[in-house]
């Protein structure tokens, strides 16, 4: 990997395009390097993972709305929408499928200087691959690039500190991945990356206070925008440049300002793209920084015994966990039983309380209004707080995989004054956890979440198709769509009509 210094440059400064971050990314995307077998295997795992969480969310209201919008843009030759037959314009397929993937906050993650869900790249690439009859091999190449670019940007450039939403790294990664998949030249990819970044920088209010369904829509929007950016670039349209480093660019006015230098790692020429191997999926449908606390709560409940004897629980954790999903956020909504599912998903206090009481976590039952309103849950929930521990923050930012941590130390003080202490650095499903996810676990997650949603024969057909995706010839990627039992779709909420018909 090569480290690149990225900082603001004056318009009058001699700053050749070859030094622009967008150009360096474009060159990586255009590099025809082979995909390592382990990268290809993980790409397949993540396609399965996305299908699993899409099956679980398919009749939720935000997904139903996005699907209705997409189906208003049918075309004889296009891309598929998860769960249904027929084809639509690819940017709309990416939109609908992106919402389905993101809705339950249940797919893969990568955390470093910034947050990310790199699986958000996949719907846009699959949609364009289906539209243009791309081969399975090229789809895998494109997904490997998209993961590489997003992970490397997440390692090098913090967005949340400046209240910019993390999808600002997703637009460029989708554009780069499409560039690889379609074998575009660096000039075209460069223009698409610049447009995609320019159009996907938004504030983090989508993940603050009373969180709405837009949290699920925001990544899908980035994918849709990136597809349109690539289309324009392929037709010869340019972009703002230099988009990151310009005097009025993203770093100068949205991030750390003209005095700051970021260091972004990127593969060197001919270096394989392996970043997907640094990412990790979720066993539980909750914000990633609550994965280890859920497993910790499940482990501690027997030691604690009667939960009524608890006086307080303090979770000692990283700055990120404390200020995003902990009491350091200063969001009263994180203690509100009437809060949205999206808000409860970002309350480690609620999540730890329910995991302690139930010894498990479920993507629907754990968020049900009646579950959040249980008096004993509310009482326990309000006894829980978080504090930042510098050591957990240091480990969160560590570049050493063996010590990088996303967990917490729980200090449970009983009414008697006795304390019970335990800690967990990474979730059980993490690559360094107690039960790392392999192909078997991804398939099991799909089977569990597709049960009662996708018929058994269709489940097996999809799994066979995705496991053989590298051999799929041009025009055959429609097989990656999962058809949902129509009786399930009939249970989706009725949504009002909008502009699109």
TrEMBL record:
<dbReference type="GO" id="GO:0003994">
    <property type="term" value="F:aconitate hydratase activity"/>
</dbReference>
<dbReference type="InterPro" id="IPR042183">
    <property type="entry name" value="MmgE/PrpD_sf_1"/>
</dbReference>
<comment type="similarity">
    <text>Belongs to the PrpD family.</text>
</comment>
<dbReference type="InterPro" id="IPR036148">
    <property type="entry name" value="MmgE/PrpD_sf"/>
</dbReference>
<dbReference type="InterPro" id="IPR045336">
    <property type="entry name" value="MmgE_PrpD_N"/>
</dbReference>
<dbReference type="InterPro" id="IPR005656">
    <property type="entry name" value="MmgE_PrpD"/>
</dbReference>
<dbReference type="Pfam" id="PF03972">
    <property type="entry name" value="MmgE_PrpD_N"/>
</dbReference>
<dbReference type="InterPro" id="IPR053420">
    <property type="entry name" value="2-Methylcitrate_Dehydratase"/>
</dbReference>
<keyword id="KW-0456">Lyase</keyword>
<dbReference type="InterPro" id="IPR045337">
    <property type="entry name" value="MmgE_PrpD_C"/>
</dbReference>
<dbReference type="Pfam" id="PF19305">
    <property type="entry name" value="MmgE_PrpD_C"/>
</dbReference>
<feature type="domain" description="MmgE/PrpD N-terminal">
    <location>
        <begin position="19"/>
        <end position="260"/>
    </location>
</feature>
<dbReference type="InterPro" id="IPR042188">
    <property type="entry name" value="MmgE/PrpD_sf_2"/>
</dbReference>
<protein>
    <submittedName>
        <fullName>2-methylcitrate dehydratase PrpD</fullName>
        <ecNumber>4.2.1.3</ecNumber>
    </submittedName>
</protein>
<feature type="domain" description="MmgE/PrpD C-terminal">
    <location>
        <begin position="284"/>
        <end position="468"/>
    </location>
</feature>
């Amino acid at each position: 990997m090569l480290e690149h210094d990225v900082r603001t440059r004056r318009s009058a400064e001699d700053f050749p395009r070859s030094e622009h971050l967008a150009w360096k990314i474009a060159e990586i995307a255009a590099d025809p390097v082979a995909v390592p077998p382990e990268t290809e295997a993980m790409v397949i795992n993540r396609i399965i993972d996305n299908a699993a969480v899409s099956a679980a969310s398919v009749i939720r209201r935000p997904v139903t709305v996005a699907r209705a919008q997409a189906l208003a843009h049918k075309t004889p030759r296009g891309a598929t929408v998860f769960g249904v037959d027929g084809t639509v314009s690819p940017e709309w397929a990416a939109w609908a499928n992106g919402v389905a993937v993101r809705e339950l906050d249940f797919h893969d993650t990568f955390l470093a200087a910034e947050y990310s869900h790199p699986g958000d790249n996949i719907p846009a690439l699959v949609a364009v691959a289906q539209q243009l009859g791309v081969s399975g091999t090229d789809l895998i190449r494109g997904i490997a690039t998209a993961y590489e670019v997003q992970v490397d940007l997440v390692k090098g450039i913090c967005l949340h500190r400046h209240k910019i939403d993390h999808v600002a790294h997703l637009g460029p990664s989708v554009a780069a991945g499409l560039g690889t998949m379609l074998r575009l030249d660096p000039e075209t990819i460069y223009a698409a990356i610049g447009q995609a970044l320019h159009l996907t920088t938004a504030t983090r209010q989508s993940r603050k206070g009373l969180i709405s369904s837009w949290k699920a829509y925001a990544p899908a929007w980035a994918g849709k925008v990136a597809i349109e950016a690539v289309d324009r670039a392929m037709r010869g349209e340019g972009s703002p440049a230099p988009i990151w480093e310009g005097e009025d660019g993203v770093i100068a006015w949205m991030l750390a300002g003209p005095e700051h230098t970021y260091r972004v790692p990127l593969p060197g020429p001919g270096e394989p793209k392996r970043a997907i191997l640094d990412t990790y999926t979720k066993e539980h449908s909750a914000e990633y920084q609550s994965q280890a606390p859920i497993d910790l709560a499940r482990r501690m409940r027997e030691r604690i015994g009667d939960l009524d004897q608890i006086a307080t629980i303090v979770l000692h954790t990283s700055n990120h966990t404390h200020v995003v999903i902990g009491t350091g956020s200063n969001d009263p909504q994180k203690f509100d039983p009437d809060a949205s599912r999206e808000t409860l998903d970002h309350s480690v206090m609620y999540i730890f309380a329910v995991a302690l009481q139930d010894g498990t976590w479920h993507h629907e039952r754990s968020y049900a209004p009646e579950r959040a309103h249980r008096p004993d849950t509310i009482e326990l929930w309000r006894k829980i707080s978080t504090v930042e521990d510098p050591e957990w923050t240091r480990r969160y930012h560590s570049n050493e995989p063996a010590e990088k941590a996303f967990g917490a130390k729980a200090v449970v003080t009983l009414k008697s004054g006795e304390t019970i202490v335990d800690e967990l650095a990474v979730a059980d499903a993490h690559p360094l956890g107690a039960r790392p996810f392999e192909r078997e676990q991804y398939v099991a997650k799909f089977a569990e979440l597709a049960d009662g949603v996708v018929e058994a024969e269709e489940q097996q057909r999809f799994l066979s198709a995705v496991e053989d995706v590298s051999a799929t010839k041009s025009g055959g990627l429609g097989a990656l769509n999962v058809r949902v039992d129509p009786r399930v779709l009939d249970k989706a909420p009725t949504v009002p009509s909008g502009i699109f018909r």
